[in-house]
Write a structure and sequence with these properties.
49% of the residues lie in helices and 6% in strands. The chain has 285 residues and is an alpha/beta fold.
């Protein structure tokens, strides 16, 4: 069924919705995926804005382009920055906005929603005795994975990261990254022939002192490391209790409008609203 949900199909659905009486004055926010849509539905003013799921980033951008070409007013798309900011890419349309960090999940992790999830699933004693800042530790552990993801995209290594066993390269006690990362990813990708030293050199070539670590780290990686942490270093959960899907859901539920109002993305949406009156997206506090 998913193959039939093309950008043209989604754009036509939005046009048809605008023709309905209850949506004639609504804005439309195009999100790149299902979980992103759920976050946005908790943040927008549903009496003034409707969230549409484009099912992936490329679709979201394509749907926006189709609607813009038809001079369809009051539509914007919000997509993950991924590595675009680091590559020097900027949105080509004033109706296309990027997340403040690598993706929407990292925006949640950067917010006080993380502390709420730690309080729910973690051990207060273990959290108190953990020697390092937890958020910074998650970032530092995920950073090399982020550079590996970026190098794979930029230099066409075609590595596979879905379904990785993080236990093979994350220390359960300290959450530090172990040296097995690249070999584990090579094995998962069936790319044993790739030279590990070359990959490390390519990763190093991407690094600069000016980079914001929040654009490098992938939210899914940080959440996978958080799962390990809540089973040992920061808690006593079993892995089923804190599966990544559970933690992502809890982070979404813990993320409040007050957290969002502190972000650059919130400010960008406010600016969009001023330019695109009378269309509105978010409620005034």
């Amino acid at each position: 069924m998913r193959e039939y949900i093309t950008p043209n199909f989604i754009a036509n659905q939005i046009r048809l919705l605008r023709d309905r009486a209850q949506y004639t004055e609504h804005s439309f926010l195009i999100a790149e995926g299902d979980t992103d849509s759920r976050v946005w539905k908790n943040l927008v003013d549903s009496t003034k804005c409707r969230v549409e799921n484009a099912h992936n980033k490329n679709n979201a951008v394509a749907v926006l382009n189709i609607l813009e070409q038809g001079n369809f007013p009051g539509v914007l798309a919000v997509v993950d920055a991924d590595f675009d900011i680091l590559e020097g890419s900027v949105p080509l349309s004033p109706n296309l906005l990027f997340t403040d960090t690598h993706d929407l999940e990292t925006m949640l992790l950067k917010s006080p929603a993380l502390e709420k999830v730690l309080s729910e699933h973690g051990s207060a004693k273990k959290i108190e005795s953990f020697a390092q800042d937890i958020r910074q530790t998650l970032l530092e552990s995920a950073k090399a994975i982020g550079y590996l993801r970026w190098a794979s995209l930029k230099f066409n290594y075609c590595l596979k990261f879905e379904g990785l066993d993080f236990d093979k390269f994350i220390d359960k006690e300290t959450l530090a990254l172990k040296s097995e990362l690249i070999q584990t990813v090579k094995n998962k990708s069936q790319k044993q022939g790739l030279d590990e030293q070359e990959i490390r050199a390519k990763m190093d070539s991407l690094k600069t002192d000016a980079q914001d670590i929040w654009y490098i780290c992938c939210g899914h990686d940080m959440i996978a490391i958080l799962q390990i942490a809540l089973c040992k270093a920061l808690g006593t959960c079993n892995s089923k209790q804190v599966e990544p899907d559970v933690l992502e859901k809890d982070l979404r539920l813990a993320y409040e409008s007050s957290h969002f109002r502190l972000t650059q993305l919130y400010t960008a949406i406010q600016h969009w609203e001023k330019i695109n009156q009378p269309f509105q997206v978010i409620s005034n506090p």
